Amino acid sequence: MQTNEEFVKLLGEGAYGFVNLVRYNNSDDNSSFLSAVKNSYQEDYASLQRELHVLLQLRGCPRIVTCHGDSLQQSFSRFGEKLHKPQLEYASEGSLNAFMNNYADRKLPEPLIKDFARMVLEGLVSVHGHGYVHCDIKPDNILVFPRQDSYEIKICDFGNSLEIGEVPLCWEINFPWLGTAIYMSPESVRDGIASTSLDLWSVGCLVLEMYTGVIPWKGVELDDIAARLLSGQAPEIPETLPSDAKDFIQTCFSREPEGRGSAHGLLFHPFLPRPEVEEEEEKKTEEKTTKSFLLNLFKLRIRGTSSNKKLTTDAVDVSDKKPLKLRFWKTKTTQFKRTLNKVLRLKKSTNFSLVSVH
Question: Which stretches make up the Protein kinase domain (predicted)?
Answer without folding.
Answer: 5-272
